[in-house]
Amino acid sequence: MRRKVIYSPENQPSPGTNPITRMTKLKLCLRLLWHRKLTLCVCGAILFILLNWYMQSESFLIEEFKFPVPPTTMSRQEKGKFSPEDIEVMRKKSLSKQESQVYVNYMADNFVINFTVIQNSARTCIKKFSIYNAGQSNIPSFFWAIYFYDNGKVGHNSFPYPRGLPVDNSELLIFHEAGNLYRLSPTEKFSPYINSRDTIEVPYESYGPHVSRHYSFPNWFVSCDICSPRILKSTAGEDLSFVETFSKPQQLKRGSRDLYRAFTAKDRFSRNSAAAKAPKPSVHSVIPTPLRVDAGGEESLVVTPSDWVVSTKDFVEEASLLAEKLHLKLAKSATSKVITFSQGKVNLPKNSSLSVSEAYHIYINPSKNTIEVTANEASGAFYATQTLLSLTEKDRSDTSKEKGHRFPGMNITDAPRFEYRGLMLDVSRNFVQKATVLKLLDLMATYKVNKFHFHLTDDDAWRLEIPEFPELTKYASNRCLDPSHEVCLPPSLGSGPFVNTSGSGFYTVSDYKEILRYAKSRHIEVIPEIDVPGHARSAIQAMELRYRRTKNSMYRLIDPDDRSRYLSAQSYTDDAVNPCVDGTYQFFKVILRNLHELHKDIQPLTFYMLGGDEVAGGAWEKSPACADLKQKHELRDYHDLKKFFFKRMMEELRQEDLTFGLWGDAVLDKSLNPNPLEEAMKGKVYTYSWSNVWEWKRGSLAYKLANAGYKVVMSPATYFYFDQPYEPDFEERGLYWATRCLDSRTAFSFVPDHLYWNRGRTQDGGEMTDEILCTGGCPPLTQPQNIRGIQADLWTETIRTPQHLHYMLFPRFLAFAERAWHKASWEDLTDVAQRDKEQQKDWERFAAILGQGELKRLESEGVEYRLDPPGARFSNSILEINTIFPGLPTEYSLNQGASWEKYNPKITTKLSNAGKILVRSSSFDGKRKSRVVSVENSN
Ligand SMILES: *[C@@H]1O[C@H](CO)[C@@H](O)[C@H](O)[C@H]1NC(C)=O
Ligand SMILES: *[C@@H]1O[C@H](CO)[C@@H](O)[C@H](O)[C@H]1NC(C)=O
Ligand SMILES: *[C@@H]1O[C@H](CO)[C@@H](O)[C@H](O)[C@H]1NC(C)=O
Ligand SMILES: *[C@@H]1O[C@H](CO)[C@@H](O)[C@H](O)[C@H]1NC(C)=O
């Protein structure tokens, strides 16, 4: 039997009465009755019977013993039979530390969480979790607390609720800890014990729909005031099996108008079907696609380590890299069997905006047995090396036989369309180990991506050692449960109560320098970001700790008298540094000095990212320091203060050759138009246009910023936010505030030069109309030279392991790299139908290269790229399977997964058994499999 432990007023003692006084009252009453003689005897008898009944009733017992807490091993039938000594021991207020810990441990091991969604709507979600005592023991309900992270704002209509948010009528309260970390605790009136097989139900409402498993976070934990926390086992680890598998539309859809539904195998089959017919990729193919390839017939040459050499005067490092990878020696000069690197002019098409400094030319000449590389600058030579390495990978089996590398005869003339080809990595939400970062830099270099935007800080942690401020890393790089506020920040994003998860970690000075050196040798510029004024809770808390310890307020980042109330996008109430106190600017001078010092001898700092996104409305409103400043400078509101802040930051931090970066929304005024940029700052400020949802009037932001004189890097969330899911599926990882469907094909289709052609779909998955598209206006681009490039952004809220990181980034990062480097011929076609057709053809070419080479190459580099589930259908009882990247192996199972057969399209046996057949795709080495999907043989 499951029982809801819900407080009901009848079984609760009324405070202030006790059985002793009641007995005295009874005696008085009887004496009174005696005086009224026999006329009242009848009444007395009735009273006696009632009293007798009452004294044997449960409510009386509860009153008498007050906290009838059974020993842990006692079954429910025996309750009330234990001795007063037992009871005394068990009284909730006198539970010793040790005993409480026993119960906390018991709860962690035996309390099973079951989480589900009851109803989504576009704005809110009603959800519920149950806590089930699956163990054998009845335990006292002492002052436990269960901590959980919910990505919505729990009780969003009731913020703030310092005394707790009541859960139904259950005498349970939810408290807002920090950000989206919440704590569930019983009140004093809560049922005094939780028995074996009891279930506690916790329904609540939060902001924003919850439609996938990975929108839930693991590592819920239980603790008490005097206990050490313990992770609830049923929520531990990465499988998130405590989240019920949703099946109802109101669980899977974001609202009643949501048109998205999970792809079926059949849907996928038709999505993939065109690409399946794509021809085998050419031996000349390289990703990203070079500007110009002149293939020279069938001839090829083989570079063998025994007799080939690499020769260079000008680009020693780049040439050495190639020599190292191909196991060749460096030599002064040679006339044959030589790869030469020389500095020289690369002839590019006239009047193009191509990035000349990165251009290169490769001439592979089989008749002379030479490869000649020409480049304007070292970066061009580096990309030539990457291209040659990419060509060697085309036929691995061949090379092993010949102990060399075969190259087709050809000429390549290449240069990127954009000087800025970036990847942003958020290492605050979850820490990314140095080794994973280095690997990522390698992969960026392989695909010719040259800017590493390093999001080093956010609300949830600070990740870079600044020796002058040890609090930043000794304290604010850790996440754990810490009532003392001295050890770590709160455990947001499912990082659990201890510091040994991806919630905690930082780069030491030497780690950071190693990353810089590694990036530099791969021609990647590292752009550090210390996000302010919003998203800065980690810095604020660290500097408050420093202030508490030193009593020196020099570097405080807040106005201590600020009584403003606000809620950030991730539900922080205290994450905006104050623009009106000097400490803020003093602090950043130190930070920037340290950054200059770190970069100095490796890669001098020329680009510093200030952040500036999502400052919560309401910040600084009740700050006396800001009231003064507003008066002094005639500033009206939050927008003016923000403007003031960035102006002063840039003035204070400005140096020759330093460019500043800002998220696009940092410079917007009330009506979403960019603040004018001072003449002196033109060309010195890069902005990132990210929030491109047309319905939110933000879609045209990139053009507005460019027209206002800001340089612009486009990182449109619906195309290049690789924290968003690949498919609108319950099992897909990722947040979905921008889109539910961002696969490699989507990223591939972005047209940077024609912003308004990137229509996509509405938030609900509907058709995009011109009206919706232009809700924020569709101004033409008047300053095209200000569009400097594109960037993929990887936020890590749901990314806790290197596997998650690879899954979210690859393979779609290759599609991004293709767009960043190569402008396809279809991109300028004005006829939509023709453009779509040409784009589809180009996609098929690209998909074939991935399926028949590039994915294998990723695999050999140890990249655990996402395996797209296959498409499948039955046609006349013949099973047909295809994949988004033709060439990827697939498998099927006729016995619900007990065994798997490799799929071979040439074998077209009819399958007689009707019903569900399971299919999945596989990595080339067979070690990894995609999500399993099913297809029905309905004959
Ligand atoms: C959790 O929910 C699932 C699905 O609703 C159900 O099958 C299972 O029995 C529940 N577990 C517990 C312990 O309540
Ligand atoms: C490659 O370029 C060289 C000289 O630049 C030229 O002689 C040769 O014909 C070209 N080969 C091809 C295949 O275009
Ligand atoms: C060269 O570029 C400029 C500016 O982008 C443009 O106005 C001009 O028409 C171009 N000329 C040719 C021949 O394409
Ligand atoms: C993390 O620390 C906790 C508490 O010290 C320990 O129980 C747990 O096993 C540790 N986990 C890992 C993965 O080391």
From TrEMBL:
One of its GO terms (biological process) is carbohydrate metabolic process. The chain crosses the membrane at residues 38-55. GO terms for cellular component: membrane. Residues 109-267 form the Chitobiase/beta-hexosaminidases N-terminal domain. The active site is at residue 614. InterPro entries: Beta_hexosaminidase_sua/sub (IPR025705), CBM2/CBM3_carb-bd_dom_sf (IPR008965), CBM2_carb-bd_dom_sf (IPR012291), CHB/HEX_N_dom (IPR004866), CHB_C_dom (IPR004867), GH (IPR017853), Glyco_hydro_20_cat (IPR015883), Hex-like_dom2 (IPR029018). Its EC number is 3.2.1.52. It catalyses: Hydrolysis of terminal non-reducing N-acetyl-D-hexosamine residues in N-acetyl-beta-D-hexosaminides. Keywords: Glycosidase, Hydrolase, Membrane, Transmembrane, Transmembrane helix. One of its GO terms (molecular function) is polysaccharide binding. Signal peptide: none annotated. Belongs to the glycosyl hydrolase 20 family. This is beta-N-acetylhexosaminidase. It comes from Magallana gigas.
